[in-house]
Amino acid sequence: MGRLLVIAGSDSSAGAGIQADLKTAQAFGVYAQTAITAVTVQNTLGVRAVHPVPPDIVRGQIAAALEDIGADAIKIGMLGSGAIAAAVADILAEETYARIPLVLDTVLLSSSGAPLLDAPGLAVLKTRLLRRALLVTPNLAEAEALTGIRPDNEQRARDAKTALGRLGVENALFKGGHGDGEILRDFLWSDGAMTVLEAARQQTRHTHGTGCTLATAIASGLAQGRDLNEAVSRAHAYLQQAIRTAPGLGAGSGPLNHS
Q: How many CB atoms lie within 10 A of CB 60?
């Protein structure tokens, strides 16, 4: 089955965040536990408010999950604040948990542009969590915020990976969904080699939660014992189908079809 722990925020519209993570894990037959970092007020039109969970409660959720059921992989999404990010980094650095594969989705902004991580949180991300992750999955804007380079072609992807390497990152997936052109390219760096994953642009506004969904699909593969390249390839195909068959809900950026 595989066991997954997701550390992320809650999305009241259920298109992204913890709700999307649970639906994705279920689609892959993985048992997912959760540690909620924030409660958001949002729908397909955007984020209206964010209420952070106290850091000790976030840490307590992680401890409760890992001490009992345990996890074969961990996925981190929205952290929200430096205090929460530090609490997460502290417990995941403990020797008991340090070897669990971690997929880090660098959630900095919502798809509507709302900030989802403060400056102290970004500092914790750069100095502690990036180096802890087996895989980091920034989109183009997030990669640029982390490295100063927008990895929208092969050469810039190489340069951005070099910059992330200075922060301790070994493997990275640069997501090209916000790029230009009719063919979108994700650049995967794994074990020192680059793989390009291509997909035709789908003309749709229903892309809410694509980043959460992809990272959780990858983490689900790792939880089931798949190697990184295989987990990423399978997750990439799943995401394309989830977008293609989206139910068309909401007046804005609608949810995917996770099932």
A: 15
| 126 part of the active site | no
**Pick the catalytic residue: 210, 213, 216, 221?**
210
Alpha helices in the chain (DSSP H): 17-27, 55-67, 82-92, 119-124, 130-132, 140-147, 154-165, 210-223, 228-244
Q: Is residue 259 domain-resident?
A: no
Catalytic residue among 179, 209, 221, 254: 209
Q: Which two tokens stand for residue 179?
A: 């790029």
Q: Domain count of the chain?
A: 1
Residue 212 annotated in active site: yes
- Per the residue annotation, which of 17, 176, 177, 211 is the catalytic one? 211
CATH code for the domain of 86: 3.40.1190.20
Residue 57: band (very low, low, confident or very high) from pLDDT cuts 50, 70, 90: very high
Q: Which of 175, 176, 213, 216 is catalytic?
A: 175
pLDDT at 112 over 80: no
Active-site residue flag, 211: yes
CA gap 21, 14 in Å, rounded: 9
Examine the residue annotation and report whether 209 is marked as an active-site residue of this protein: yes
Q: Residue 4 is encoded by which pair of tokens?
A: 């997954």
| Span 147-192, pLDDT tens digits | 999 999 999 999 999 999 999 999 999 999 888 889 999 999 999 9
Residue 195 is a catalytic residue? no
Residue 89, domain extent = 3-244
- 210 among known catalytic residues: yes
